[in-house]
Amino acid sequence: MEIKGPKVKDYIRKFKVAPGKKIQLKKYDAGWVQNKTLKSMNEEQAQELLEKMLEKDRASLAEAQELLAASHEKGILIVLQGMDTAGKDGTIRHVMSGVNPQGCDVHGFKVPSAEDHAHDFLWRYYKVLPERGMIGIFNRSYYEDVLVVRVHPERMEVLPEKIGPDAKGFWEGRYKDINSFEKHLTRNGTLILKFFLHISKDEQKRRLLDRLDHKEKYWKFSTADLAERQFWDQYTKAYEEMLSATSTDYAPWFIVPADAKWMARTFVASVITSAISGLNLSYPKVSDDQIKQLMAAKKTLEAEK
Ligand code: AMP
Ligand code: MG
After folding, report:
1. How many structural domains comprise the chain?
2. What is the pLDDT of residues 205-219, one digit of tens each?
């Protein structure tokens, strides 16, 4: 079925961060973004259309993932970042719902353990990177190590003074470490896609209140989120600097408008699907010898009484 929706190319042009580009998040609309196709629609019609696109992309993603596993050439790493309540969990659930669970790993990262802190900051993430053939999703990631600890340096591991956060060029050093890490992974067969789910401060207030208005959502509310909200501007600044320092040709960031959940989910699904199909993967070739063996096996099975 052909769906006449916005083309993923148009989205990508809008939301992909060019390497080194100075980012001011206030210039990025967190609400539902109109383009040529959506312009003539009201919000409900746009939502309906985008949900249909998501449905279609989910099916393509399931197929693409099978090919990814069969060809065993590449792993895919998807990084999701965003302020509290930005919709990271929901996006993962909706986008990946059709994919074979055996082909997909989701990792969430909480406050690091003492063992994590006794290693370099990338160690705990390295251990759980996706194998070839797998899609790995990071719900929060090594980017927390230039975000939450940038805003709250006291939450960082204790480092020797000479190389710690007061040393000159410390944060630039971390960005460089991240870029080299991602370059290394890319060179060795991992495709990396990074999404920043961009919500407005008003939308966060609505979502936090919603958690307090519904008993079944109480568990999602954390008073820590309310405390972090007081640091909104500092987080915004840390995000802006991080986005411009770490969006590269080989591991780009996308700033995804996420006040409208359906917009964010559809966009993320489209980008992942189109990136996998761009890899031009193919099912493994079977040699003449292997075919002979397969046919012999067939004969043996058929001859069984
Ligand atoms: P949640 O994703 O809502 O379950 O929250 C996880 C918490 O862990 C958030 O408050 C993050 O800021 C925190 N966290 C994740 N990674 C790090 C890190 N590397 N250093 C410090 N805190 C972190
Ligand atoms: Mg939370």
Report:
1. 1
2. 999 999 999 999 999
Q: Whose CA is nearest to atom 23 of ligand 1?
A: 111
Neighbours of ion ligand 2 (CB under 5 A): 84
What are the tokens at 194?
């990074």
Q: Is 36 contained in some domain?
A: yes
Angle at 274 (CA atoms; ends 273, 275), nearest 5 degrees: 90
**Ligand 1 binding pocket mutation candidate from 92, 140, 151, 222 (most atoms within 8 A of CB):** 140
Domain span holding position 175: 8-303
Pocket test of ligand 1: the residue of 85, 122, 148 to mutate, having most ligand atoms within 8 Å of its CB, is 148
| Residue 3 forms part of a structural domain | no
The answer, yes or no, to whether residue 3 has pLDDT greater than 80, is no
Q: The domain spanning residue 155 has which CATH number?
A: 3.40.50.300
- For 202-234, letters b (16+ CB in 10 Å) and e give ebbeebbeebeeeeeeeebbeeebeebbeeeee
In this model, does residue 35 exceed pLDDT 80? no
**Run of H or E including 232:** helix 232-246
| The residue type at 164 | G
Residues ≥6 apart with Cβ < 8 Å to 17: 23, 243, 244, 247, 252, 253, 254, 255
Segment (H or E) for 207: helix 201-213
Measured distance CA(138)–CA(104) in Å, rounded? 11
C-alpha span between 279 and 293 (Å, rounded): 30
Q: Which ligand is nearest to the CA of 223?
A: 2
How do residues 240-298 score in pLDDT, each as one tens digit? 999 999 999 999 999 999 999 998 999 999 999 999 989 999 999 999 999 999 999 99
Whether 1 maps to a domain, the answer reads no
